[in-house]
Automatic annotation (TrEMBL):
<dbReference type="InterPro" id="IPR035906">
    <property type="entry name" value="MetI-like_sf"/>
</dbReference>
<keyword id="KW-0813">Transport</keyword>
<dbReference type="Pfam" id="PF00528">
    <property type="entry name" value="BPD_transp_1"/>
</dbReference>
<keyword id="KW-1003">Cell membrane</keyword>
<comment type="similarity">
    <text>Belongs to the binding-protein-dependent transport system permease family.</text>
</comment>
<keyword id="KW-1133">Transmembrane helix</keyword>
<protein>
    <recommendedName>
        <fullName>ABC transmembrane type-1 domain-containing protein</fullName>
    </recommendedName>
</protein>
<keyword id="KW-0472">Membrane</keyword>
<feature type="transmembrane region" description="Helical">
    <location>
        <begin position="20"/>
        <end position="40"/>
    </location>
</feature>
<feature type="domain" description="ABC transmembrane type-1">
    <location>
        <begin position="1"/>
        <end position="100"/>
    </location>
</feature>
<keyword id="KW-0812">Transmembrane</keyword>
<feature type="transmembrane region" description="Helical">
    <location>
        <begin position="81"/>
        <end position="101"/>
    </location>
</feature>
<feature type="transmembrane region" description="Helical">
    <location>
        <begin position="46"/>
        <end position="69"/>
    </location>
</feature>
<dbReference type="InterPro" id="IPR050809">
    <property type="entry name" value="UgpAE/MalFG_permease"/>
</dbReference>
<dbReference type="InterPro" id="IPR000515">
    <property type="entry name" value="MetI-like"/>
</dbReference>
């Protein structure tokens, strides 16, 4: 973050909130968008933590889509159904990524 831009805004009389909203946030918006996309898609692919910590136990409270897919394929040997669930997971991740990518036009003010 260039200090000169912050200093120029400070000299123009912008308070801290105005500097953050008008200068800092637009400059870091590409990074925020990338982190948001990676976090959302990564949160839908949680498997190892559930398998190691609970082993899929505690009823169905720790069952997420990826763990459900694993159970159908490798515990119940229902590979066709697991394939359908994996396609559903792909479509969900794709849809969320596309929605976030389309909102970049509103949130990202400059792209390299």
């Amino acid at each position: 973050m260039p200090e000169e831009i912050q200093e120029a805004a400070r000299l123009d009389g912008a308070n801290a909130w105005r500097r953050f909203r008008s200068i800092t946030l637009p400059l870091i918006s590409p990074t925020v968008l990338l982190v948001t996309i990676l976090t959302v898609s990564g949160s839908l692919e949680v498997f190892a933590q559930i398998d190691v910590l609970t082993g899929g136990g505690l009823g169905t409270s720790t069952t997420v889509l990826v763990y459900y897919l694993y159970q159908q394929a490798f515990r119940f040997n229902d590979f066709g159904y697991a394939s359908a669930v994996s396609v559903l997971l792909f479509l969900i991740v794709l849809a969320l990524t596309l929605v976030q990518w389309q909102t970049r036009k509103r949130w990202v003010f400059h792209e390299a």
